[in-house]
Amino acid sequence: MNLFAAFAETVVRRRYHPAIFWGEAQLAYDWIAQRAAWLSRTLAKDFGVQRGDRVAVWLKNCPEFPAALFGVWRAGGVVTVINNFLKPEEVAFILRDSGARVVITDHSLTENQAKLVALKSELKFLHVEDFAALSEVDAPSPVDLNESDLAALLYTSGTTGHPKGAMLTHGNFLANVRSCITCLDFCDDDRLLVLLPQFHSFMFTVGTLCPLLQGASVVLVKSVSPFKHVLDDIIHRRATMLPAVPPIHRALAGLPAGIELPSLRLCISGGAPLPMEVLKQFHARFPKLPLIEGYGPTESSPVATVNPIHGTPKAGSVGLPIPGVELSIRDDDGKELPVGTTGELCIRGPNVMRGYWNQPEETAKTIRDAWLYTGDIGHRDADGFYYITDRKKDMLLVNGINVYPREVEEVIHRFPGVKDAAVIGVPDARRGEQPLAFVVVNEGVSLDEKALHDFVREKLADYKVPRHFRVLPALPRNATGKVLKTTLREMAK
């Protein structure tokens, strides 16, 4: 079994069922299948792509994105997914690192393509505007791949140093899709709203593979600005599921009274920590609509945990391990820690990557005794629920005592008028490090720094309290909403 074979089975069953809603267009599974067939023939015949060759997919959100994935897999290639917000030099690094010679893109990125060719002249481009329909019987037979074959290189966000290519197999994704479908009660009638970038691992698996291997539909949002477009798609297309990052759920929580979203049965938060205050506001606005938090790094395909939709989710927790996946809290020596003790989250299961592309030393550091060491700090409670405290690299040491930025950020979020917050550590000659907070306030609000300082000091130990609060119009974030703390550190200098 492989991802294309799984999709082909779905096409047989759901050929004329809507696969993608895109503006006013309604595109059937057959529409994707025909373009995947055309692409597989074109890649093999015109571009010489063979089994195991890497093919880059550099696209903005569009219906052709899944056709590109399944077309590459039908041809036996390995998808190298590229963040469409990257600049040409950053893209060139990924192409050199992966060895991809063919780039599937669109005409909107033409200017960047010219710059890219200047950096890497041997590239060949294939534009999705040229995709054509082709009967599957007229295309070459799909390359016979199995679960152990490499399916994709998903590059980490690169918030520290050069990005690394996570090697994920067909089996990794298939296992993750099966588990997610079970946990989220996916069914054929579901319509999953996709507004986050399709290149991100969260949307790659949950927003693309899950619905299209299940036989459900994707409601693909053309534009998130203004936010009314998102609401129109939810209401007009009767979306049932919304996976998104915390800022989207915050926006929903702030909708004026009278706007209801009756078709939604489930909202899922991932990609970044969900502040407790946002969860509280969301439940106050939509008391009958579940908002559950999940967790998983790119290296685990990516979902590792999710709060239960049947039973009782726990606020502040990222939930329970998904079926077939184990989690463990371990110390720096790899020793498992008891319930309630803070340590590094480790993941083991069929969803864990093979390793980092061409980086055996980094792979050896990250995967030890079949456990994926995530770099995330957290703990497990007596009921088996997991909690993320922070990123290991983001942890501060103040007078030798651990300070976890997320704990401080949660308190700042509770101060009236605060819209967003991020905490970093800055060097301090006497204490080693000191917390520094960056704060975004609601429109029309003037921050009283002393009042905020006193508010935080009432709730946290003195060594955890930021000595300064810097107001920004917005926090720097990457394409999926994750705060870029490396940028904040540069600003702090």
Describe the structure in your own words.
The protein is of the alpha/beta class and 493 residues long. The protein folds into 2 domains: 392 residues, ANL, N-terminal domain (Rossmann fold, 3-Layer(aba) Sandwich); 98 residues, 2-Layer Sandwich (GMP Synthetase, Chain A, domain 3), CATH 3.30.300. Helices cover 31% and strands 25% of the residues. The chain has a 7-stranded mixed sheet with strand order 6-5-3-4-7-8-18, with helices on both faces. The longest helix has 19 residues.
Q: Would you state the CATH class of the largest domain?
A: Alpha Beta
Strand order of the largest sheet: 6-5-3-4-7-8-18
Query: Low-confidence runs (pLDDT<50, min 5 residues)?
Result: none
SS class: alpha/beta
Report the sheet with the most strands, covering strand number, pairing sense and barrel closure: 7 strands, mixed
Strand segment tally: 26
CATH homologous superfamily grouping of the largest domain:
ANL, N-terminal domain
Q: At CATH's second level, what is the architecture of the largest domain?
A: 3-Layer(aba) Sandwich
Helix content: 25-40%
- First and last CA, distance: 52 Å
Residue share in β-strands:
15-25%
* Global morphology: globular
